[in-house]
Amino acid sequence: MNKLLILVVEDDTSVRNLITTTLKAHGYRHQTAANGQTAILEASSYNPDIVLLDLGLPDMDGVEIIRKIRSWSNMPIIVISARSEDNDKIVALDAGADDYLTKPFSVEELLARLRVTQRRLAIMQGGTQEEKSTFTNGKLMLDYGAGCAYMDGKELHLTPIEYKLLCLLSKHVGKVLTHTYITQEIWGRSWENDVASLRVYMATLRKKIESEPDMPQYIQTHIGVGYRMLRVE
Fold it and tell me: Cellular component GO terms, alphabetically (predicted)?
């Protein structure tokens, strides 16, 4: 049993029932909210381990909810939304969302995203024996044991996906990692829309670690192939 508490914020009854039934079948506990006000109240009252958040709620936009929760908590927030444009994803991620899942979605994909976030939580709460070490590249430093990243001594506020991407690239510094390899490592398998999602996450990650995102020093794009972390002196 996972025993994590998931807050499901979704006004569509059928989608909410699908998610909660899936969670229950896989050992997760859950609370539900059908609007933004209830979501904020539930989040503050129950302090869930993860929030699954729809953006199109009847009383407020989901991005506003993300900002409100981020004003007092770092609980992981996975957006589940029909909004599929890159700009919508970037706005939600910049507001503080940790992951973004586009409707319609498969149950397997939802569970994979939850597993990724759960592993991130485990690292934050104590780490794993094999990852109690650090990585330094130029002004970038990763503390695998603590689950933290720093640029020029200042901690970076990364989403779980951004952090896992940075760790993956750092452990293969100098090597080109293909889109397929990266998506399989990050999400457990390669979905057709994950390459587009990967571009979004790389864009937000670069904004946080590169002094000039349009002229990246740390992460190099190999068009049509994948990405590579460069060794910085």
Answer: cytosol; protein-DNA complex
Per-residue pLDDT of 82-124, as tens digits, reads 988 888 888 898 888 888 998 988 999 899 889 888 877 776 6
Q: Exposed (0-12), middle (13-18) or buried (19+): which is 71, by Cβ within 10 Å? A: exposed
Which superfamily, per CATH, for 5-124?
A: Response regulator (3.40.50.2300)
Q: The sheet that has 176-178: what strands, in order across it?
A: 176-178, 226-229, 219-222
Contact call for residues 99 and 113 (beta carbons, < 8 A): yes
Whole-prediction pTM: 0.66
DSSP H or E run through 101: strand 99-102
Q: CB atoms < 10 A from the CB of 127, how many?
A: 16
